Every structure is written in C-alpha cells, then in structure tokens.
Amino acid sequence: MSYSEFTEKDYEVIDRAWQVLYASAAKRCADARELETVCQAYAFANEAHKNVRRRSGEPYMLHPIAVAQIVVDDIGLGYKSISAALLHDVVEDTDYTVDDLRDRFGDKIASLVDGLTKIKNILDNDNKDLSAQSLQAENFKRILLTLNDDPRVVLIKLADRLHNCRTIEFMPEHKRDKILSETMFVFIPLAHRLGLYSVKSELENIWLRYKEPDDYQEISTKINRNIQQRAKEINAFIEPIDEALQKAGFRYEIKKRVKTPYSAWHKMQVKQIPFEQVYDLYAIRIIFDPDRDNGESERDQCYHVFSIITGIYRYMPERLRDWVKHPKSNGYEALHCTLLSPSGIWVEVQIRTRRMDDIAEKGIAAHWTYKQNGYVSENDSEMDLWLERIKEVLVNPDVNALELLDIIHNDLTSAEIYVFTPKGEQRSIEKGATVLDFAYLIHTEVGNKAIAAKVNQRLVALNYVVKTGDQVEIITASEEHPKREWLQFLRTRKARNLVLDYFRNERKQTVDYGRQLLEEQVKLHGSKLDEATMQRVEAAYGATDREEFFYKIGIGSVKLDNLADVLKSRQRYSLLRRIFSSPKEKTKEPEEYIIGGKADDGRQFVIATCCNPIPGDAVVGIKSPDGRITVHKKSCPVAEEIAATHGDWVVVPKWLEVAESQAFLVRISLKGLDRMGLLNEISRFLSLVMGANMRRLNLSADNGIFEGYIDLYVNSKDVLEKILKKLTTIEGIETVSRIDL
Q1: Is 151 exposed, middle or buried (0-12, 13-18, 19+ CB in 10 A)?
Q2: Are 510 and 554 in contact (CB under 8 A)?
Q3: Which of 127, 137, 554, 649 could form a disulfide with 510 if both were Cys (CB 3.0 to 4.6 A apart)?
Q4: How confident is the model at residue 407 (pLDDT cuts 50, 70, 90)?
Q5: Distance from C-alpha of 349 to C-alpha of 715, rounded to nearest angstrom
C-alpha cells in the first residue's frame, strides 16, 4: 500500500463502483434499515481508507467494494456480510479497533470483521524457519475453525481471495506462486465444497493463466474460435427443445454454457487427450420453475423434461448423470445428459429447477436461504452433514495441523461413490476406496479381522478398489490383525487412522521397517544407500527429518514409485547448476533466483521427477533446508501442495539458455490410422530430421488404429513444440501431444 492525495478522478472511480454495489445491495436487503447499515459501512470504510492506494496505484477502497460486490452477486449473502466485506480491512490497516466497529455496527458485523482480520494476519505471517513444522498448516486450521463460529467468515474470505487473484499481476512472482498454490490447494476445493461454482471457476482460470500461460492462451483461442464456428449449430439445436417445452407448458429459461479454459485443460491432463477430443465443450442449461400444484415432485418434473428432450434427440446412456436422485455431497442437484445434435456434435444438457440452479451457483448461502424460508428439500441434509463432519475434525485435540490440512484437503477434493452391503443397504464411500476401507466403514473390528472380500459374489483381495454399485461382503478371521502393508493401499482417513492407532506404540519398529524398505528398493535399482544417496533421496521427496521420513515410508504415506528416476539424478546436478543461477548482488528478494550466476556459486538444482519440467516450462523452485532447490512445473500438484503448506520455501528460478548437448526426458502421445511403414517414418523423422535421442517407443495397433507413446530427449520446450507440430504432418497421425511420464 502507498499514500498519496486522491484526485477528483479517484473519487469519481470510487463513486461509480459504489453505485453499482448500492444497486445490488438494495435488491438483497430486506428493508431500508438494512440498506442504511450498508451505506454507513461504506461511508466509514471510505473515510478510513482515504488517500490509500493499492500496488496497482488505484484507490484502496475499490478492493473492499469489489469484495462486497462478489459477496452479494456471486455468493448471495445479506446486509451484515456486505457490510463486513466493506469493513474487512479497516481494523488491519487503520487505527480503528473491533470495539470501535462493535459500537457503531453491532456484535455480528464486528465479529465477522474480527474473523476476517485474524485470517489476514494468519496468511500474511511468514515462517522463516525451514525446519519447523508448517506454520501454513496451522494457519489453515485456524481459518477453518471459523466454520465452527460463523461460516460467513470463510465465504467473505473466498470473495476477498477472488478479488486479490483478479489483481494478482501486481504481486512479485514468488508471492504470486505462493498465493496461487494455496488458492488451488485449499480455497478452490473449499469453494467447490461449499457449492460456489462461479467463484471456483474464476479462481481456476486465473490459476491456469499464471501457472500455464501458454496452455491458457492456446486453449482460450481455440474455444473462442470454436464458439464462432458453432454458434448457429447450437442455436439450431436449442430451437426444437424450446418449442417442445413451451408446448408442454413449462415456465423455463435456457442458458448456453461453454467449458472454461481450466476445465478443458484439466480434462486434457487427466484423460491425456488433445483439445480436439474434448467433446463436451458445449452445454445448455434448462432451468424451470416447478409446478407446485400438479402433484409431481421436483425430481419427477426433471425426469419429465428429460423424456421430452430425449424424444427429440438421441442421448448417450453412459453419459447420463442423475444428481437429482443422488446429489453430490456439496448439495448439487441436476440431471445431466449428452445429446447428439443434427450437425453431429455432442451437447451436454443440464436440467435444473430454479432452486437447484440457485444452490448450484451460490451454494451454501442459497441452501441457508431456502431453509430459512421454510423450503426443505429431501437432499438438504448433505450440506449439513458435511459441516458437522468438518466441525468434528476441527475440534479433535488428537489431530495436529498437518494431519488436519491433509484431512480437509482430501475431504474437499474427494468424490463419493455408492456401494451395497450383502443385505442391500446403500453406503457412500470415497472414490478410490478399497474393500478394506469399506470393512473399516462397517466396523473397526470388521476391518481389523478382514482377510478378503467378495465383490458381486467374486472373491477379491483387500486392496481391490470398489466401484459404484458394487455389493461387498467382507470375509474375516478371528486370529487376523492389522498389517503395516495395509497402509500402502488404504484410502480413507478413518481406515488409515484406525490402523495407525493400532501401531502407534510401535514407532521404532515402523521407522526400522521404513529404512529397510528404502534400502531394499535402492538395492533393487543397483545402488547403495550411502549418505550421498540418502541426501539425494531426501531432497527429491522434500524430507526435512530423516526419522520422520523413514516413518512415513513405513506407514505408506511416502511412496517410492519414482525412486529409479531419483537415483539417476546425480549426473544432473552439475548440468542444472549451469542452467539455473541467481547472483546475490542482483537479488532484491531472497526468494527470487535470477539468470546469470556462476556454476560454482554453491547452489544445487534438482529436476523434480514428478513432473519433469524442461527449459521453457514455467517453473517454481522448492528450497530444502540444505539449500538444494527442487524445480517443478508451476502446475505440478506436488509443488502446489508444498507451496500451499510451506509458502516460505517457494523461490523463483529462471532458465538460462541451454546448450544443444543438454537434454531432458519427455513423453509424447500419438494416435492415428495405422499403415505400412508408419513406424519407420516416425523413427526416421525423430532421429535423422530432428536429431532427437529416443529412450523408449511403445506403439501398438488394433483394427487399423494405432496409439501409444514415445519417450525422447529434447533440450527445450521450443524444440519439443517443433517436433509435435511436424509429427502431425506425417500421414496417418491424427493426434500428438506431450503427456506426463
């Protein structure tokens, strides 16, 4: 922040923003008294922030106005929350106290501002001791504890985070990486879990714009081009649906929706497909007002709309999603189907009532509003049950901050599936859970005594991953007891904690077991676990305490799947020290590592094997206690988690120009029509034309279609993009893209 006298233009800008907010608040406030409170909060904050400017140079008051605008428009909160949003920085940035606000605005608004002030102080507090347990994890625990007091504090904080992300280009890069990482790790999942779709989507797109700027720009351009080409086709698709719904007497509106750049990018990453294979790019929403007098439930009326539109177009049965009968755990209700348009494109259609749409867009705030107005849905318990579950965890004295952060993150991001007991009772469990997780869901002793299971009458091992609709019967033995290796595959927090409790008094044995596991794995890869190797492994896995590292290996929370690549990284140290540098005399921020240092400056850089960045990729560095820096792609989930929980470890390395002799491993995926000589042509092109050294080639053909991948070495992202572009010119190759190793 900075201070300088406001000009007449500054006052005009503030007033224009306030007039927009005033119009929105007037619609939300129940009476003149509530609106007057909002006006008083604005006047108070405007005077308190007078002549104060943000990093961008604009008047600071524009920030609380923008936060309040999000609170009312995107979240749908009332006058107390709007007022608190306007006042949320007053206590932190001026001489006013919470008591001053309490005297003027009452207890509730003052307590909301107090909660927001505490959150701001928490997030702005930097921990300089790299060996200490994560202060950030403790911070998030304290933030989430506000759910116990008043969830509106977290909702207003989400609005505050959204506006700060909208203006994040004015932040230094290392701060930007920290903010975006904690946004992706906690705030985006939290927005999703609380049902705030518009807030979540905008945060995701901002994250992608800064973490993967090239991908964001390319996907945005393709989406915009596609919209222009398909606009008439979508309108033609909607026309007969419009006529049929009018004829059936529905009161409704139809909205068009295009997949966001982040949503398309995420699907491309998860499915390992190019943009051209993202088929559900378009969707339309049918939002109708249910007829309360015809005797049909909201659910039945949704099915009626479904029967009308599927009488017009053919639908894809495997893409039918019934979240009306089985709502998502965040309360989301809708019926999704995918229809084939006359022009041959698949269009997703989402069917919702007005109430369902409000909850889908404004989440928990709309959920509360409907309950306060006396409308109770059969699915209302979903959101309430989740809040109660989170509160239970938050007040558990046996859960430390780091464990809690993992618990909350997993709860926020996990999806649920439905499985059945032998008696046909339905139970929900986390997606990816095993039959052993299910055993512990039934009862602790059932889990402790489990030896196998029957899934749909077929015998399976305890690590079998259950799927929606499975019927599961657990087989037990009286002499059975928990095994440490169970921790390698258990997914749910409850099951893992029960097994950990069983072994809690055997820490030394677990540490020894972890050391033994590591030694065996290192030996399998032809190496010896000497001190140099141990340090390299610790750096690669971000370990700061050796005994704790062994313990985590022993209980299965640290996987050694990429150990082979870690052990091969010795020869890369000197190479990377030449590629990265950061001269002390030019460094203004300790977190920034600028190009231009010498090879003997004592720093060691390690390429992270989880994401394998190459020169030209946007990267972030994670600094370990010994000064070694592990380099990740900015969008790497591993780096995101570390940056979110240890924000002060983040540094910003820059790529130097790389010599042609220096090479980095990448994997490219190919698919197309098989023909005689295609494999030889691909190999000849890569070896002779591009001079690329191939490490592995895995292509197979079936019924005239080939697909697979090639691992090869390149020295920069520019070279890789040339290879990808030229490969698409080879006859028969339909799609080619870079994928994760």
Answers
A1: middle
A2: yes
A3: 554
A4: low
A5: 45
The CA distances from residue 629 to 547, 591, 607, 657, 739, in Å, are 21, 11, 9, 19, 24
Rounded CA-CA distance 35/20 in Å is 14
Confidence band for 282, pLDDT divided at 50, 70 and 90:
confident
Residue pointed to by tokens 């698949």: 346
Instruction: Please state whether 542 falls in left (phi above 0), alpha (psi between -120 and 50) or beta.
Output: left
DSSP for residue 687: I
Is residue 129 part of the annotated active site? The answer reads: no
Q: How many CA atoms lie within 13 A of 138 on its CB side?
A: 9
Residue 657 pLDDT: 63
Asked if 93 is an active-site residue, the reply is yes
Write out the two tokens for 520.
């065996």
The amino acid occupying position 327 is P
Short-list 472, 409, 412, CA closest to 436: 472
Q: Mean pLDDT over residues 217-241, rounded?
A: 89
Instruction: Report how far residue 343's alpha carbon sits from residue 575's, in angstroms, rounded to the nearest whole number.
Output: 54
For residue 196, what are its two tokens?
A: 């705030």
Helices (H), 530-600: 531-541, 546-555, 563-567, 572-579
Please give the structure tokens belonging to residue 397: 């004295």
More confident residue, 340 or 195: 340
In whole angstroms, give the CA distance from residue 22 to residue 86: 12
Query: 689 or 684: which carries more pLDDT confidence?
Result: 684
386 falls in which pLDDT band (50, 70, 90)? low
Chain-centre distance of CA 512, in angstroms? 35
Active-site position among 58, 93, 296, 721: 93
Q: Are 581 and 604 a contacting pair, CB within 8 Å?
A: no
List pLDDT tens digits, range 112-160: 898 888 776 655 554 433 333 344 555 555 556 655 567 788 888 889 9
Catalytic residue among 92, 291, 592, 674: 92
Tell me the C-alpha distance between 420 and 583, whole Å: 61
Distance CA 195, CA 567 (A): 44
Please give the backbone phi and psi of residue 601, each rounded to the nearest 5 degrees, phi first.
-80, 5
CA–CA dist 284, 307 (Å, integer): 16
345 CB-contact burial (10 Å; exposed 0-12 / middle 13-18 / buried 19+): middle
Token output for 181: 């990482």
DSSP summary character for residue 405: H
pTM over 0.70? The answer is no
In our burial notation (b when 16+ CB lie closer than 10 A, e otherwise), range 579-603 reads bbbbeeeeeeeebbbbeebeeeeeb
